[in-house]
Amino acid sequence: MHTKLGEFIRTHRERTLPDSVGLPGGGRRRTPGLRREELAQLCEVSPTWLTWLEQGREVQASGKMLARLAEVLHLSAAERAYLFSLADRLDPHHDDDGGSAEEALDAIVAAIDAPAYILDRQWNAVAWNPQAALLFAGWLPPSPSAQSRPNLLRYMFLSAAARELIVDWPERARRLVAEFRADIGRHASEQALAALIAELSDASTTFAELWTLQDVVGREGGLRRFRHPQQGELSFNQVTLHLAKRHDLKLVMLLPQA
Predict the structure, then answer these.
(1) Per-residue confidence at 98, pLDDT binned at 50, 70, 90?
(2) Under CATH, domain 2-87 is a member of which superfamily?
(3) DSSP string over the chain
(4) Class of the 102-256 domain?
(5) pTM score > 0.85 for this model?
(6) What are the tens digits of pLDDT across the range 116-158?
(7) What is the dihedral of CA 87, 46, 69, 10, to 10 degrees?
(8) 54-81: per-residue pLDDT in tens?
(9) Which candidate, 28, 38, 61, 112, has a CA 20 to 30 Å from the CA of 233?
(10) Residue 25: pLDDT band by 50, 70, 90 thresholds?
């Protein structure tokens, strides 16, 4: 993996024209791109360290350093994501969508003729359709708004309505915590997530006990059963998808059973 990272950086260094970063492009150059010393100076690292990185040696690059590399090399969003993936590092700007994905969230759920909602990394609902609001009346308001980001875990563990609505609540609660741990992975130490986990642990002994189990399971689909106060017994097949341009967002659909 270190070799692939070095090759990727070297290739894009050689593609970056000096004048694109404010350097003169004249003189004798073996390649039209940046010299290693120039890139090192622009990134405020030593040429030796950059040489070792490009050679695939066991040197560690911080997220801040990789972000600077991506900026200097004018990497696209996809190239930047690939760079951080090769380095096995978190992008300090991983939630920047760089496009119109945020604006399309309401349209995505509105186009689905079944309860559907979108969760962010903290499992706050950022978009949902009327069918979802009707099903989860104790969690999702009728009309989404930028100020309203109802959290699924707070609803699950702090609302009595959730225990009444969700059939086999204890088992679903256990799986939900294990799915949440798997979903956030190495992001768990981030301030917003750490604060949420601490809040839930203080407010719910059940959550605290389940969190200490260290259980991890994938967010799988399958049968979801509800006991709705107005609609009675309901069953759905849950499907969860990640958005291509925003991997921190999850689209959850509750589809009618065939």
Answers:
(1) very low
(2) lambda repressor-like DNA-binding domains (1.10.260.40)
(3) -HHHHHHHHHHHHHHS-GGGGT----S--SSSS--HHHHHHHHTS-HHHHHHHHTT-S----HHHHHHHHHHTT--HHHHHHHHHHHT---TTTT---SSTGGGHHHHHHT-SS-EEEE-TT-BEEEE-HHHHHHTTTTS-SS-BTTB--BHHHHHHH-HHHHHHBTTHHHHHHHHHHHHHHHHGGGGGSHHHHHHHHHHHHH-HHHHHHHHTT-------EEEEEEETTTEEEEEEEEEEE-SS-TT-EEEEEEEP-
(4) alpha beta
(5) no
(6) 999 998 999 999 999 999 999 999 998 776 567 899 999 999 9
(7) -70
(8) 898 888 888 888 999 999 999 888 788 8
(9) 112
(10) low
Give me 150's structure tokens.
């109802």
Token look-up 């979801």 returns 224
